[in-house]
Amino acid sequence: AEAREAYVAAHPASQALHERARQVMPGGNTRSVLMYSPFPTAMEKGEGCHLRDVDGRDYLDLCGEYTAGLFGHSEQRIHDAVREALGRGLNLAAVGAAETSLAGLICGRFPSVELVRFTNSGTEANLMALTAARAFTGRDAVLAFRGGYHGGVLLFPLSGTNPATVPFPFVMADYNDVEGTVALIREHADRLAAVIIEPMLGSGGCIPARPDFLAALRQATTEAGIVLIFDEVMTSRMSGGGMQARLGITPDLTTLGKYMAGGMSFGAFGGSADIMGLFDGRIAHAGTFNNNVLSMAAGNVALGKIFTPEVAETLFARGEAMRARLNGILTGMGTTMHFSGIGSMATAQFRAGPIERPEPPTAEEEALRELFFFDILASGIYLARRGMIALSLPVGEAELDRLAAAVADFAEARAALL
Ligand code: PLP
């Protein structure tokens, strides 16, 4: 309560903006993930890996726009590419060279992707991948995992069965449960079009899939003629060719999104030529902004010039070192708090690890998560409300030192609760 009161006192302009927003948008926002009680911090601008809120407070940005902000807020080469594209005009209602070169970059990097198509978001990419799998197999159901997140209409709660939002029948399985999942795949083989999985649960808490689990899914889906879809919307940053390249496990379809157009809106789905070939006219896939000139121009620079496979490896290593350092501090203090994740993504956990699958949080965990968020925010570091970190390229050693100090201060100040 005290941390909340301090937050309210320090953010009058954010509070006033929230009051106005609530008059015109349900919940006062247009992106559920950004809403938290009592009101969210509203940002005014960003530069590099720094943000300034509407009350004039400065933050180190380690939220990294939930992975979409990989390049930071002011990467000059991306801004230049967008300005150059703007100079040639918007909304040309035509195919262009930039989409072919960006598609070429993606096909060259992701082992599963022989052919690719663009969308406006990761949500649409997943909806289209599922549509393709259903058309390809002639089956209708999809196996997904509890706690998985594949977009605004494709979120899977920890309890209950189907999401209410899409009219596909879903079979729900438990993440990292080899035996149970393989049994479900076999049981439902004749109605399953696809198995869709994040190689690491992102929103679900940065919980990595065990390699043997993904390998078992690969084998069971191949045997049953089911399309295996890796949702790499978040995890594609884990190497030049995503988690699939890192693990050497190749799905049939892959979905992409987030940072890949340099921070412009983006999504893509791609895979084997036999499945993706359906879009040669047999299935339609339109979308006014699929090849919008800003996303395509920025994406070419982002992937082709900046986030090269070498840079992806460096970022991965920086993230691994960060998590080891944070966990070393926390273990040294004797807390169960730790950071899960892989590479440049991490989530604060308030139960003993390693965590294999998400579980409904206890009231105590909820309270600690909220306290962590407000304490770290008060120290000038902006994270996702759920305690997720996604490193951006401008984050360097000095910034990671700041994070380590803030986490140590939190663990010390709140030792009695942890
Ligand atoms: N898939 C995963 C794994 C995601 O994390 C997200 C977004 O957070 C999506 C899909 C949806 O992407 P978008 O928000 O671009 O629709």
TrEMBL record:
The keyword Transferase applies. InterPro entries: Aminotrans_3, PyrdxlP-dep_Trfase, PyrdxlP-dep_Trfase_major, PyrdxlP-dep_Trfase_small. The keyword Transferase applies. Keywords: Aminotransferase, Pyridoxal phosphate, Transferase. Its cofactor is pyridoxal 5'-phosphate. One of its GO terms (molecular function) is transaminase activity. Belongs to the class-III pyridoxal-phosphate-dependent aminotransferase family. This is Aminotransferase class III-fold pyridoxal phosphate-dependent enzyme. It comes from Falsiroseomonas frigidaquae.
